[in-house]
Amino acid sequence: MSATRRTYGSALKSDAVELAARSGRPIAEVERGLELSEGLLKQWVRKAKRDGEAAFPGHGRLKAKEWIPIPSIPS
Questions:
Q1: 3-state SS track over 46-58
Q2: What gap in Å lies between CA 14 and CA 30, rounded to an integer?
Q3: What is the pLDDT along the chain (75 residues), one digit of tens a residue?
Q4: Which of 32, 33, 57, 75 could form a disulfide with 61 if both were Cys (CB 3.0 to 4.6 A apart)?
Q5: How many Å apart are CA 46 and CA 16, to the nearest integer?
Q6: How far is CA 61 from its chain centroid?
Q7: What is residue 61's predicted lDDT score, i.e. its pLDDT?
Q8: CA–CA separation, 39 and 53 (whole Å)
């Protein structure tokens, strides 16, 4: 039997990172309280520090700096 992979929206990720920062509790404790996999919140915190507000753009959406312009095709 395979495990089901859970997905989390950008709002939950941002809220969890904010909670970890404001609570004063260890990240592992916040993870357990939110029933997240071990190490997941730490990854989100690192990503938020590195990318700021662009850290969690949403499911399958590229960050603005990753956009590649698509050349137009002459008709």
A1: HHHHHHHHHCCCC
A2: 13
A3: 567 878 888 888 999 999 999 999 999 999 999 999 999 999 999 999 998 887 887 665 555 665 566 666 666
A4: 57
A5: 12
A6: 12
A7: 56
A8: 21
